[in-house]
Amino acid sequence: NIKSEVKFSKKMKILRYSLIGLKTYFDRKRVNYFTMFDLKPYYGETIVQNKFIFMRRYTANKTVDNSTVYFIGQPLYGEKLVEKNVYFEFLENIKRYFVKQNKKIIYIPHRREENLEEFGNIIDDNFKIQRLPTSVEIHLLSLDILPAGICSFYSTALFSINKIFNIDTIAVYLNSEFLNYNQDGIENTYD
Predict the structure, then answer these.
(1) How far apart are CA 172 and CA 9, in angstroms?
(2) How far is CA 69 from CA 65, 89, 99, 148, in A?
(3) Bridge partner list, 30
(4) Beta bridge partners of 147
(5) Which terminus of the chain has fewer Cβ atoms in its 10 Å neighbourhood, N or C?
(6) Cα–Cα distance between 172 and 94 in angstroms, integer?
(7) Phi and psi of 82, rounded to 5°?
(8) What is the rounded CA–CA span in Å between residue 29 and residue 39?
């Protein structure tokens, strides 16, 4: 019986949380959000702003390497949002931009970017790839020396890094004329 399995599952969650000291209370009429975004609550909702106070404690004594920028990759051509040649042309242009500023790029591939051999021609002393075993935010917390900036076309990590660290975050505009679909959705992320 599916209904009894769902009830049993909820009871097991509550029991599991109780065993480790977490108090749970489920109220179907109220919704609470814990978010880094500045949202306005609707009737009956509570918004708790995540100010990253705990994480910010670990950023105070970090220095910045002004010769390095991280670029957070995205599987845009793997998901057919842009053509592969267009994606790599964008990366080449971004690379040229930062090389003119005497900065090297460390490209952090998205977890769904699997075929990194396709980056062959772009990789050199000014463009390296580094796959992370954890989120970029946690990785940055583990470093003593931070990059001068973090770039991406669009990524939630840009928002959180901006709130946690005292380094530049740059959203590189992805012109909608190059997108195969979701033009309005992507365009709205830059507002």
Answers:
(1) 44
(2) 9, 18, 10, 6
(3) none
(4) 65
(5) C
(6) 9
(7) -130, 160
(8) 19
